[in-house]
Design goal:
alpha+beta, 7 strands, Hypothetical upf0131 protein ytfp, 4 helices, glutathione specific gamma-glutamylcyclotransferase activity, EC 4.3.2.7, 3-stranded antiparallel sheet
Length: 194
């Protein structure tokens, strides 16, 4: 069994695996459109995590993990069903490691996706202006930690892989700016209180 990770699975698989490969899937774009009420936010203050949305001509870099043996597969799937419970779709697709190749390196890689249909996926937040998403990320925290940490770890993991994802980079920069503004505003309020 192969599992493709394009968000936190890149740096934190959370299950035992036999092999890890860097590569990409075709026809999808990674976007911070999924609400997180169980890991990086709360129901009252949802964070944002990435999901994939179909986009012709795009590729999404990430990692594929190979899990071997029936028992190991069942353990990994049980873990993923809990961890990825807010992602309501599972697809199987081709995984590539060479941008010039038309032949996949691996076929039938499992991918968890959050659908864009709010009737099926109550946590789908959808698109918003970059600054709005950045402020939401800076202000959200859940049981797995600050939402900003998720964004910055994803940016670092993609950079380490040699992947340039403009959406992630632009959002990380907007979040840093929002954090600076938030810190400066808090300092001004402290000074006014004195």
């Amino acid at each position: 069994m192969w599992v493709f990770g394009y968000g936190s699975l890149i740096w934190n698989a959370g299950f035992d695996y036999d092999e890890r490969r860097v590569g990409f899937i075709k026809g999808y774009r990674r976007l911070f459109h999924q609400g997180s009420t169980d890991h990086r936010g709360t129901p009252a203050n949802p964070g944002r995590t990435v999901t994939l949305e179909p986009h012709s001509g795009h590729i999404c870099w990430g990692v594929a993990y190979r899990v071997s043996g029936h028992q190991a597969e069942q353990i990994a799937l049980s873990y993923l069903e809990v961890r990825e419970k807010q992602y309501d779709r599972k697809i199987y697709t081709d995984f590539f490691t060479d941008e010039n190749s038309t032949e996949p390196t691996i076929s039938d890689v499992l991918v968890y996706i959050a659908s864009t249909d709010k009737k099926l996926n109550k946590n789908y937040l959808g698109p918003a202006p970059l600054e709005t998403i950045a402020r939401q990320i800076v202000g959200a925290r859940g049981p797995s930690g600050p939402n900003l940490e998720y964004l910055l770890k994803l940016e670092a993991a993609l950079t380490e892989m040699g992947c340039k994802d403009d959406h992630v980079i632009d959002l990380a920069n907007a979040a840093r700016k929002a954090l600076t503004w938030k810190d400066e505003n808090a300092s001004l309020k402290e000074e006014d209180a004195k």
